[in-house]
Amino acid sequence: MDFPILLTILLAPVAAALIMVFVPKEEHMLHKSIAAVGTFVSLALSLFVYFTYNKEIGGLQFVFGHDLPWIKDLGVTFFLAADGISLPMLLLTNLIGFSAVFASWNINNRPREFFILLMLLITGVMGTFIAHDLFIFLLFYEVVVIPIYIMVVIWGSSKRVTKEYAGMKLTIYLLIGSAFLLAGVIALFVKTTALAGVPDMSFTGMAQVAQQLSRFDQIWLFALMLIGFGSLISMWPFHSWSPDGYAGAPTAVSMIHAGVLKKIGGYGLVKIAVYMLPVGASFWAPYMAVLGIIGVAYAAMGALAQKDLKYVVGYSSVSHMGYVILAVACLDVIGLNGAVANMFAHGVMAALFFSMIGFIYEKTHTRWIPDMGGLARQTPRLAVGFMMAAMASLGLPGLVSFIPEFTIFISGFNNFGGLAVIGIAGIIITALYVLRAGANTLFGPPRPEYNHLEDIRGPELVPLVVLGTVLVVGGFLPSLLFDMINSGVVPLHAAISDALQIGGKL
Amino acid sequence: MPFDPSALTLEMLTAVLGLGVLILGLIVPKGSRHGLGWVSFLGLLGIIGVAVALWGDNRELLDGMYLVDNYALFWKITFLLSAALVILGCMRYVDSIGDQAEYYSITIFATLGMMVMASAGDFITLYLGLELMTISFIILVCFRKLEAKSVESGIKYILLAGMSSAVLLYGLSLLYGLTGSVIMLDVSRIVAMQPVSPALVLAVVMLVAGLGFKISAVPFHMWSPDVYEGAPTPVTAFLAVGSKAASFAILLRLFIAGLPGIWENWAMVIAILAAVTIIVGNLVAIPQTNIKRLLAYSSIAQAGYIMVGLVTATEAGIKGVMFYAFLYVFATVGAFTVAAYFYNITGSDELKDYAGLSQRSPLMAAVMLVAMLSMAGIPPLAGFVGKFYLFKTIVDGYLWLVFIGLIMSMVSVYYYLRVALVMYRDEPIDATPISVSSPVAVTLIVTMIATLIIGVYPGPLSEVVNNAAHTFFLH
């Protein structure tokens, strides 16, 4: 058997957490270093996996445990595998996880507990992206909820909403969403087992059977999954947890939540809901597109009205996820490519945004835009990071998010015509609120009380360097990202269009 | 068929253990009765060992009066295990009350009653086991006889348990009147040949009400929060686990083996009862401020989830019930042991006094959190798999119940997290660390690890339960 590299990536943060349990809690620096090492191992290995994945062959690679029966009577195996869709997400998780450790470098209130929970959170997110078995996916999917809740209520901030409210709202929204998802999965399991005679919960095995389900079954099962994954990806009208939750959460949680956790929703939509239930997907696609576009426009307007930086970015992330939903609704290769690529791009950008806002808040003790003045003069490096994220958010060519958005517009226009134009127009509002936030925070008249502020330095620079590099490299070499995604999307699309043709005949 | 007493090995061993502890209590001087807890614990462990060795012994005794099969054996192991864990976790608590010999031996006799129930093949045996269990519990509930609350809950329990036993007995006697037999296998054959009569309907209503009381299903649940709150906490733990599990064991036997034909008409009633139990249990738990009352309502909700497995009356449903009951043992014993030990140290059951428990005793806080999240069904803890098995049986036909169950279990996270919030976020009022004595620590660690392992790797247990559920239909 080959070296189980995916398992190693998955367990490196767990190992770090276990070590931390045995380190005395006063050793703050040691805990931070262990967390940094743990996430670095995962990051380095996932970079290795990303660049050694054979895109010519495509399909599932680095397979682990497909022959390791986990629960026999449910047909569950501990199946880990990576393909062109999961690898960018895995890489994104580790980029953000590694940066999040450094964005939390200044936490001195119970750091041991904080970093242990952070490690569990990162593990849970990674697990969802490399699990190739629906049951194992669900295990990881909900694991993340509880660490997040505890992190929000202990280390969060109560600026506009209390952190207890934010944490509970976040948790309950996501859990209720997952209740629908869970109902969908259980029903899907029962239906596929009845059809095939033997239970099989691996993605490929289940999809082959699920694609043959009757049109009616596919439609209602897809609806359940759409509610579940939709509330995680903050699809309008299930989005309202997102701005409040991010505002209450500590920086690292906002980064991971907006950066990758949300993307589990989009990833699940593409790799589970659409893949397994193509007929249901094609039925709901127009509605999804409408919801996506409403999300884009509504959240962009919402962001325009905000004066709290975290709310601006919170609404902006809802708006950007609207594009992802629109792209998934296109159900063609270009659209799905755009959806996955945009999730990656937005993840990097949102994480950078939240880490910079975290530092601003840490130093100025405010997130209120009118109070900021001209931080660009006082903290130039912070301003660079902020503006890079802002420019990526409005889709500046040369940064990572331009091509994905462009791709989505092409596919959206092809499939939905005039409707997509409204979505495309959302980019103008995005430019407006992003530039306004940037101008009022960084380039206004400098305020004397911030003259003494120290710019970010040392470990604090890591998020800027890591995520900033990805923003630029992804912008200039989009093929690095797109070739990979395309190698995963093309076979997936082939499978669903085959199934759609058969489904049409029935 | 000649009577073979070896089929009763487990029951006899348990009875010997119970009597032995009682006699030892007379011999050993008052000051050194602490060791009786260890005798009981090790004795129960030994009996569990024998029970595991007896796996695979499937037969009927005395023309179906007593059924020995893996189904019964699995339940017996569940009861013995929960008795052993409860005893291990409560020794210090019992020492503070005194009368160790009586306490442990009555606990063991309650276990014996449950074991008889699991194997009961006729109404008389069933009732015998049930009463042995109930009367033992009545004594245990008012064991702190100098405390008004304990005595009050004991009286409540006597009155209501007596009522429910009477109702159940009346139902059983009606069935006997209709069929002329007390053996369940015969009853099932005779009932199948008769048209459904009003008397039969009345009998089933009585049985559902009588057993509904034992499993504290809504609307027969009123007693349980009061009794749970007033009883000594380890007794509450055993009551919540053992009594409930044993009642499910006979509920399945009575309805699915004894009245299979009639069950189809009752499935909807049970589904509605399950839904109401889940909803009421979870919603009423939300405003509770006393940890024992909170756990009481949450255990009502748990009974509702387990009832889901009864609806379809299939092997998969029985498997779901048994699987969930087994993992429920660990979560409940874990949570109640924390509560008992906390009461021992601080004298309080109020949620607000749990503030900062994570700093005073990380182990107790962690066990409480894991136990509660398992009850809520959050992966990777055992409750998630258990709910998966239960709900998958009712997707066809009762999809609405799947929704109610899943959504309410997410609602339950709200009050479980409130406990987590108090334990983890709030600063302790009294910051003295709580050192957990080693037997309690072992109980806590065992329950936590079992909850985690069953959740992460449920395969082996699932196969054992499949086998046990399969033997249910062999008679």
UniProtKB/TrEMBL annotation, chain A:
Belongs to the complex I subunit 4 family. GO terms for biological process: ATP synthesis coupled electron transport; electron transport coupled proton transport. One of its GO terms (cellular component) is membrane. The keyword Glycoprotein does not apply. It comes from Desulfoscipio geothermicus DSM 3669. It is found in: Endomembrane system; Membrane. Residues 131-419 form the NADH:quinone oxidoreductase/Mrp antiporter transmembrane domain. It is a multi-pass membrane protein. One of its GO terms (molecular function) is NADH dehydrogenase (ubiquinone) activity. The chain crosses the membrane at residues 6-23, 35-53, 78-102, 114-132, 138-158, 170-190, 219-239, 284-305, 312-334, 340-361, 382-404, 416-435, 461-482. The keyword Cell membrane does not apply. Its main location: membrane. Pfam families: Proton_antipo_M. InterPro entries: NADH_Q_OxRdtase_chainM/4, NADH_UbQ_OxRdtase, ND/Mrp_TM. Keywords: Membrane, Transmembrane, Transmembrane helix. This is NADH-quinone oxidoreductase subunit M. Signal peptide: none annotated.
Automatic annotation (TrEMBL), chain B:
Keywords: Cell membrane, Membrane, NAD, Quinone, Translocase, Transmembrane, Transmembrane helix, Transport. Its main location: membrane. It is found in: Cell membrane; Endomembrane system; Membrane. The keyword Transport applies. NDH-1 shuttles electrons from NADH, via FMN and iron-sulfur (Fe-S) centers, to quinones in the respiratory chain. The immediate electron acceptor for the enzyme in this species is believed to be a menaquinone. Couples the redox reaction to proton translocation (for every two electrons transferred, four hydrogen ions are translocated across the cytoplasmic membrane), and thus conserves the redox energy in a proton gradient. One of its GO terms (biological process) is ATP synthesis coupled electron transport. It is an enzyme of class 7 (translocase). This is NADH-quinone oxidoreductase subunit N. HAMAP family: NDH1_NuoN_1. The chain crosses the membrane at residues 6-28, 35-54, 74-94, 101-118, 124-143, 155-179, 199-223, 235-260, 266-287, 294-313, 325-343, 363-385, 397-417, 438-457. Belongs to the complex I subunit 2 family. It is a multi-pass membrane protein. Its EC number is 7.1.1.-. It comes from Desulfoscipio geothermicus DSM 3669. Residues 120-409 form the NADH:quinone oxidoreductase/Mrp antiporter transmembrane domain. It catalyses: a quinone + NADH + 5 H(+)(in) = a quinol + NAD(+) + 4 H(+)(out).
